[in-house]
Amino acid sequence: MKNCPYCKIEVGGNLKKCPLCQSNLIGEDERPYFPKQTTLKIQSFFYKVQLFIVWTIVIASLGVDFLFHFKVWPSLNVHWSLIVAMWLIVFEFGIIRLFKRGISSSRIMTLFVFIVLGMFSVTAYYVGHLWFAAAWVAPIVVMGTLIANYVLAMLDKSGNAMIYLLTNLVVGIVPYIVFYFSERDCPVTWIVCLMVSVILFVGAIIFKGREVVGEIQRRLSV
Ligand SMILES: [Zn+2]
User: Which of 5, 111, 131, 161 is the one with CA 20 to 30 A from 168?
Assistant: First the structure.
Protein backbone atom coordinates (compact mmCIF):
# COMPACT_ATOMS: atom_id res chain seq x y z
CA MET A 1 0.00 0.00 0.00
CA LYS A 2 1.27 3.49 -0.82
CA ASN A 3 0.54 6.55 1.24
CA CYS A 4 0.66 10.33 1.04
CA PRO A 5 2.78 11.99 3.73
CA TYR A 6 0.73 15.20 3.51
CA CYS A 7 -2.85 14.02 3.29
CA LYS A 8 -2.28 10.97 5.52
CA ILE A 9 -4.24 8.72 3.20
CA GLU A 10 -3.49 5.26 1.86
CA VAL A 11 -3.67 4.77 -1.88
CA GLY A 12 -3.94 1.32 -3.49
CA GLY A 13 -2.51 0.33 -6.86
CA ASN A 14 0.66 1.75 -8.39
CA LEU A 15 -0.11 5.47 -8.68
CA LYS A 16 2.94 7.75 -8.55
CA LYS A 17 1.15 10.90 -7.36
CA CYS A 18 -1.39 11.52 -4.63
CA PRO A 19 -4.85 11.89 -6.15
CA LEU A 20 -5.68 14.71 -3.71
CA CYS A 21 -2.58 16.90 -3.52
CA GLN A 22 -0.41 15.58 -6.39
CA SER A 23 2.68 15.08 -4.21
CA ASN A 24 4.79 11.96 -4.71
CA LEU A 25 3.45 8.95 -2.84
CA ILE A 26 5.76 6.85 -0.72
CA GLY A 27 5.67 3.12 -0.08
CA GLU A 28 5.59 -0.07 -2.14
CA ASP A 29 3.74 -0.38 -5.47
CA GLU A 30 0.85 -2.77 -5.53
CA ARG A 31 -0.60 -4.49 -8.58
CA PRO A 32 -2.03 -1.80 -10.88
CA TYR A 33 -5.73 -1.15 -10.42
CA PHE A 34 -6.45 -0.41 -14.07
CA PRO A 35 -5.27 -2.35 -17.14
CA LYS A 36 -3.18 -0.46 -19.71
CA GLN A 37 -5.32 0.97 -22.50
CA THR A 38 -3.06 0.92 -25.51
CA THR A 39 -5.78 0.63 -28.19
CA LEU A 40 -7.54 3.66 -26.79
CA LYS A 41 -4.29 5.60 -26.90
CA ILE A 42 -3.69 4.67 -30.54
CA GLN A 43 -7.28 5.55 -31.41
CA SER A 44 -7.02 8.90 -29.72
CA PHE A 45 -3.73 9.54 -31.54
CA PHE A 46 -5.36 8.89 -34.93
CA TYR A 47 -8.33 10.93 -33.84
CA LYS A 48 -6.05 13.87 -33.11
CA VAL A 49 -4.18 13.46 -36.40
CA GLN A 50 -7.38 13.52 -38.44
CA LEU A 51 -8.73 16.41 -36.36
CA PHE A 52 -5.55 18.36 -37.11
CA ILE A 53 -5.82 17.58 -40.84
CA VAL A 54 -9.49 18.57 -40.91
CA TRP A 55 -8.84 21.91 -39.26
CA THR A 56 -5.86 22.53 -41.56
CA ILE A 57 -8.11 22.00 -44.59
CA VAL A 58 -10.90 24.19 -43.17
CA ILE A 59 -8.58 27.08 -42.36
CA ALA A 60 -6.60 26.76 -45.60
CA SER A 61 -9.71 26.73 -47.78
CA LEU A 62 -11.24 29.69 -45.93
CA GLY A 63 -7.97 31.54 -46.49
CA VAL A 64 -7.67 30.65 -50.18
CA ASP A 65 -11.31 31.55 -50.78
CA PHE A 66 -11.63 34.79 -48.81
CA LEU A 67 -8.07 36.17 -49.01
CA PHE A 68 -6.99 34.99 -52.48
CA HIS A 69 -10.54 35.05 -54.00
CA PHE A 70 -9.91 31.72 -55.69
CA LYS A 71 -13.02 30.18 -57.31
CA VAL A 72 -13.44 26.42 -57.81
CA TRP A 73 -16.98 26.48 -59.19
CA PRO A 74 -17.85 29.42 -61.45
CA SER A 75 -21.66 29.26 -61.00
CA LEU A 76 -21.46 28.95 -57.23
CA ASN A 77 -23.22 31.89 -55.57
CA VAL A 78 -21.81 31.27 -52.13
CA HIS A 79 -18.24 30.98 -50.87
CA TRP A 80 -17.12 27.42 -51.62
CA SER A 81 -14.96 27.28 -48.51
CA LEU A 82 -18.10 27.59 -46.36
CA ILE A 83 -19.44 24.40 -47.93
CA VAL A 84 -16.11 22.65 -47.35
CA ALA A 85 -16.18 23.84 -43.74
CA MET A 86 -19.77 22.65 -43.27
CA TRP A 87 -18.93 19.14 -44.48
CA LEU A 88 -15.82 18.79 -42.39
CA ILE A 89 -17.23 20.26 -39.18
CA VAL A 90 -20.37 18.13 -39.37
CA PHE A 91 -18.11 15.16 -40.08
CA GLU A 92 -16.17 15.89 -36.88
CA PHE A 93 -19.29 16.17 -34.77
CA GLY A 94 -20.52 12.99 -36.42
CA ILE A 95 -17.40 11.14 -35.31
CA ILE A 96 -17.84 12.36 -31.74
CA ARG A 97 -21.55 11.58 -31.56
CA LEU A 98 -21.79 8.38 -33.52
CA PHE A 99 -18.88 6.41 -32.17
CA LYS A 100 -20.07 6.50 -28.60
CA ARG A 101 -20.72 3.07 -27.25
CA GLY A 102 -24.20 1.72 -26.86
CA ILE A 103 -25.73 3.15 -30.01
CA SER A 104 -27.10 0.50 -32.33
CA SER A 105 -25.53 0.16 -35.75
CA SER A 106 -28.90 0.76 -37.38
CA ARG A 107 -29.28 4.08 -35.62
CA ILE A 108 -25.74 5.11 -36.53
CA MET A 109 -26.35 4.28 -40.15
CA THR A 110 -29.72 6.01 -40.38
CA LEU A 111 -28.43 9.16 -38.68
CA PHE A 112 -25.33 9.14 -40.83
CA VAL A 113 -27.35 8.86 -44.04
CA PHE A 114 -29.67 11.70 -43.03
CA ILE A 115 -26.83 14.00 -42.02
CA VAL A 116 -25.01 13.35 -45.30
CA LEU A 117 -28.21 13.83 -47.29
CA GLY A 118 -28.93 17.10 -45.51
CA MET A 119 -25.48 18.47 -46.28
CA PHE A 120 -25.67 17.11 -49.80
CA SER A 121 -28.94 19.01 -50.35
CA VAL A 122 -27.38 22.25 -49.09
CA THR A 123 -24.45 21.73 -51.45
CA ALA A 124 -26.71 20.83 -54.36
CA TYR A 125 -28.84 23.92 -53.68
CA TYR A 126 -25.86 26.27 -53.91
CA VAL A 127 -24.32 24.47 -56.88
CA GLY A 128 -27.73 24.64 -58.60
CA HIS A 129 -28.66 20.97 -58.82
CA LEU A 130 -31.15 20.67 -55.98
CA TRP A 131 -33.85 19.05 -58.08
CA PHE A 132 -31.47 16.37 -59.33
CA ALA A 133 -30.40 15.66 -55.75
CA ALA A 134 -33.97 15.55 -54.46
CA ALA A 135 -35.34 13.43 -57.29
CA TRP A 136 -32.49 10.98 -57.88
CA VAL A 137 -29.62 10.93 -55.42
CA ALA A 138 -31.61 11.17 -52.17
CA PRO A 139 -34.21 8.47 -52.95
CA ILE A 140 -31.58 6.02 -54.17
CA VAL A 141 -29.46 6.56 -51.06
CA VAL A 142 -32.54 6.24 -48.83
CA MET A 143 -33.54 3.01 -50.57
CA GLY A 144 -30.09 1.57 -49.93
CA THR A 145 -30.45 2.51 -46.27
CA LEU A 146 -33.90 0.92 -46.06
CA ILE A 147 -32.57 -2.35 -47.42
CA ALA A 148 -29.52 -2.31 -45.13
CA ASN A 149 -31.79 -1.49 -42.17
CA TYR A 150 -34.03 -4.40 -43.09
CA VAL A 151 -31.08 -6.77 -43.17
CA LEU A 152 -29.99 -5.49 -39.73
CA ALA A 153 -33.51 -5.96 -38.40
CA MET A 154 -33.52 -9.56 -39.65
CA LEU A 155 -30.14 -10.24 -38.02
CA ASP A 156 -31.03 -8.52 -34.76
CA LYS A 157 -31.13 -10.97 -31.87
CA SER A 158 -32.00 -8.52 -29.11
CA GLY A 159 -35.65 -8.09 -30.06
CA ASN A 160 -35.48 -4.54 -31.36
CA ALA A 161 -36.48 -5.31 -34.93
CA MET A 162 -39.67 -3.27 -34.69
CA ILE A 163 -37.82 0.01 -34.25
CA TYR A 164 -35.84 -0.51 -37.45
CA LEU A 165 -38.94 -1.45 -39.34
CA LEU A 166 -41.08 1.45 -38.15
CA THR A 167 -38.21 3.79 -39.01
CA ASN A 168 -38.18 2.23 -42.46
CA LEU A 169 -41.91 2.72 -42.90
CA VAL A 170 -41.81 6.35 -41.78
CA VAL A 171 -38.80 7.10 -43.97
CA GLY A 172 -40.63 5.61 -46.95
CA ILE A 173 -43.91 7.44 -46.39
CA VAL A 174 -42.79 10.91 -45.27
CA PRO A 175 -41.18 12.07 -48.57
CA TYR A 176 -44.30 11.00 -50.46
CA ILE A 177 -46.50 13.02 -48.08
CA VAL A 178 -44.20 16.03 -48.42
CA PHE A 179 -44.51 15.92 -52.20
CA TYR A 180 -48.26 15.39 -51.93
CA PHE A 181 -48.81 18.47 -49.78
CA SER A 182 -46.37 20.66 -51.68
CA GLU A 183 -48.53 19.89 -54.74
CA ARG A 184 -45.59 18.84 -56.85
CA ASP A 185 -45.48 15.62 -58.78
CA CYS A 186 -43.76 13.03 -56.68
CA PRO A 187 -40.70 11.79 -58.62
CA VAL A 188 -40.99 8.15 -59.63
CA THR A 189 -37.90 7.33 -57.55
CA TRP A 190 -39.63 8.37 -54.32
CA ILE A 191 -42.70 6.31 -55.27
CA VAL A 192 -40.42 3.29 -55.76
CA CYS A 193 -38.84 4.13 -52.40
CA LEU A 194 -42.27 4.13 -50.73
CA MET A 195 -43.09 0.77 -52.30
CA VAL A 196 -39.75 -0.69 -51.18
CA SER A 197 -40.39 0.45 -47.61
CA VAL A 198 -43.90 -1.08 -47.53
CA ILE A 199 -42.69 -4.33 -49.13
CA LEU A 200 -39.88 -4.61 -46.57
CA PHE A 201 -42.33 -3.97 -43.76
CA VAL A 202 -44.63 -6.73 -45.02
CA GLY A 203 -41.62 -9.00 -45.45
CA ALA A 204 -40.63 -8.39 -41.85
CA ILE A 205 -44.11 -9.22 -40.61
CA ILE A 206 -44.08 -12.44 -42.65
CA PHE A 207 -40.61 -13.57 -41.60
CA LYS A 208 -40.47 -12.21 -38.07
CA GLY A 209 -44.15 -11.84 -37.25
CA ARG A 210 -44.07 -13.68 -33.96
CA GLU A 211 -41.13 -11.67 -32.63
CA VAL A 212 -42.65 -8.41 -33.83
CA VAL A 213 -45.90 -9.14 -31.98
CA GLY A 214 -43.89 -10.04 -28.88
CA GLU A 215 -41.98 -6.81 -29.16
CA ILE A 216 -45.14 -4.69 -29.51
CA GLN A 217 -46.53 -6.36 -26.38
CA ARG A 218 -43.30 -5.78 -24.51
CA ARG A 219 -42.98 -2.14 -25.51
CA LEU A 220 -46.59 -1.23 -24.86
CA SER A 221 -46.75 -3.67 -21.92
CA VAL A 222 -50.07 -5.18 -23.01
ZN1 LIG B 1 -1.69 14.06 -0.74
Answer: 131
